[in-house]
Each structure stands twice: as structure tokens, then as C-alpha cells.
């Protein structure tokens, strides 16, 4: 089947490789462009660095010596894998979302510990809000910015308009909201009504509320493996191929 991937380009390319192994074709349509920012990290020593998006890892890798003594607490398995690949040794992984990350810290880190949330400029208040309320000293470092795309790529818009896209993958509420806005701007509201939209969580799906008649599928847990397994419910479209071996 043909699957539209709305992630930032580097992450979208990784997803496209996974889709190819599953026998699907991917069409990249990033609705966010991730760029670094020049803000320096807060001074001082931190007991742990919280990473809720792999987008923060390039900036963290550039400051690896400064955070050498801190544990890296990644929101989920894929982010943890990328942190290890970036050269960090003391990496732990939470259960896939901010609530799970809060619970992990509460269960492993003493109250009063100094925590750094490496995040984007446009972010939700969690996990920092809950951890600060629980007695942790939480600082935030805005180390990247996710800028909205001006429009959907022409090949993606044409494929959606022609009904060739079998499924669209959505990973965050913000990117889902942006996709909905760009789709409406391109006049695609009716064209995509019959397309399956596969969402990382119910919160992500809520970002598509402005589009009527969508076929929504919500992952049972917030990780990409669970998300991609839902494609089996979409069915085999004309773009499907036999799965490939990873060997």
C-alpha cells in the first residue's frame, strides 16, 4: 500500500525504510521542518536529562561532555536507541509518552534531583509540570525548533487528491493539526475523507478533528511498532509488495 509519512524528513526516511521492509511504499510529506537553535543549555550539573523527542539529540550530542554524568531518560525505545547511537552510555527508556516518563522518574530518581528537559521551542507543559510539582528541580532547554511547512509537497497533494494514498501516519498532535490545516488549504478535505489515518494516540487523533469523515485508527500504545502494526487493518492496496527480509 502507499503510506503517507508526515514526520520531519530525517525521521520520515527512517520510517520509510521500515515500511519498505513491510512491503509498503512510502511517500514523504513532512509538515514540520526541524532546525537547531542557538540557545545555550542552562549552567550547572544535572542528575538526568529528559528527552521527549529524538529531535533534541543532535544538540545534546554537541554538549556530550557537559552531560557526561547525567542519565539520559528517553521517552521510548526508538529515542533511546538513537541516544545510544549518538554516543550516550547511560540511557534509560520510559513507556512511550510523557506520563510514562513522569512515572519512570518518580520511581527511579530521588525528589529534589536536578532535571533538564531538552525540548523544542513549541512544547507541551509535560513532563516538566508534573515533575516540578512532585518536588524536582526542573529546567528546560529549548534546543531545536519545529517550523511548520508552508504547504504539502506537490506529489503528496496529488496522490491524496487522486485517492492513491491508502494510509497517513500521524505521530504528534501538533503535526496532525498542521496536516489538517494544510489539507484544508489545498482543498483536500473531501478527497481524504476515505483515507485511513493511523495515529500514535487518541491525543494525536484529536488534532484531526477539523477534518470530517476520516477513518481513524489509534495505536494501542504510543510507539512506532504498534502504529505500523495497525496498517494490517487497512488492507492490501495496489502499492503493496511482499515483505522484505532485514538480513
Automatic annotation (TrEMBL):
Q: What is this protein called?
A: Uroporphyrinogen-III synthase
Which domain of life does this protein belong to?
Bacteria
Q: Which CDD domains match?
A: HemD (cd06578)
Biological process, per Gene Ontology: tetrapyrrole biosynthetic process
Q: Which residues form a coiled coil?
A: none
Query: Which GO MF term does the entry hold, naming one?
Result: uroporphyrinogen-III synthase activity
Q: Which residues form the Tetrapyrrole biosynthesis uroporphyrinogen III synthase domain?
A: 14-228
* Pfam assignment, any one: HEM4
